[in-house]
């Protein structure tokens, strides 16, 4: 998928994330949407921060556990980044969070 189509799939998946997050207390919501051969996995943090990961369906190395582990690492990085007292409410999380998320993706997926 090209970038605009990926963004469309993620935005559509967020609607399903909102629905499913009210139905369960679990943070990892599994696959919330599918488009062609792309699966949208979701994680909703207790702070209501929502994360969506697009994967190529069955070709994800490590399967469901790899995705769950990825979200666990990204959730930890998110917690560390948001606890930074120097970070304003409207500021981006910064390069440290981005680097940890990319590193988790390289290791887990």
UniProtKB/TrEMBL annotation:
SUPFAM superfamilies attached here? SNARE-like
Gene3D superfamilies registered for this protein in UniProt:
3.30.450.70
A biological process from GO: endoplasmic reticulum to Golgi vesicle-mediated transport
- Gene Ontology CC: one annotated term: cytoplasm
Mind telling me which InterPro entries this protein's record contains? Answer: Longin-like_dom_sf (IPR011012), Sedlin (IPR006722)
This chain belongs to which protein, by name? Uncharacterized protein
Could you tell me which species this protein originates from? Ostreococcus lucimarinus (strain CCE9901)
